[in-house]
């Protein structure tokens, strides 16, 4: 109480882990500089529940700023699918957002040709154990353009690699799943592991690409690499909509 403190409300993807890692690195650097108490100390809330309690203790809604707009609401705008209807918006209190907890998100898993017909029962069992809900499923034959769009941007600069990946992806029928759960995009990527099955095997033999993949081309799976890409993948593979997804419609998630 002898000197002022700075209190910040921060928001971001995987916020608790990311901030914890940043503070740990900062603390180590600080300790190397000095063993005294003259350098600043830092504390963070460790759970969403503690975050909510501390937020309402230190801040009012008028204190909070979201995004680029200087206002206190989370605003989402979408175009109504009904022809002739105007734009609509929905505002959500940041405190209500914190209190509600993790939102259900969708991501896309594409099981590449030659794998899904043999491994599907085990894959679906593992998805169930990881608390994923399947809200869309279809088998399809990819065209070259759709196959190329699934490749990482850095790989698309290599013509030979693009040709090899597209040849494999278009060689047979693929199975596409739309999956839903909290933090779905990151959770699926964590399950799949690195694109290279050998690297995945070295990291953890239980990773899916370690179990099912044989090469960087025939690595078993494609998973949406970010939330923004997941929204685009859902639009690409399920333009007709999803059977039983909860949460925001795709049009709202785009914004």
From TrEMBL:
<protein>
    <submittedName>
        <fullName>NDK5 kinase</fullName>
    </submittedName>
</protein>
<dbReference type="Pfam" id="PF00334">
    <property type="entry name" value="NDK"/>
</dbReference>
<keyword id="KW-0418">Kinase</keyword>
<dbReference type="GO" id="GO:0016301">
    <property type="term" value="F:kinase activity"/>
</dbReference>
<dbReference type="InterPro" id="IPR051766">
    <property type="entry name" value="TXND_domain-containing"/>
</dbReference>
<comment type="similarity">
    <text>Belongs to the NDK family.</text>
</comment>
<feature type="domain" description="Nucleoside diphosphate kinase-like">
    <location>
        <begin position="104"/>
        <end position="244"/>
    </location>
</feature>
<dbReference type="InterPro" id="IPR034907">
    <property type="entry name" value="NDK-like_dom"/>
</dbReference>
<dbReference type="InterPro" id="IPR036850">
    <property type="entry name" value="NDK-like_dom_sf"/>
</dbReference>
<keyword id="KW-0808">Transferase</keyword>
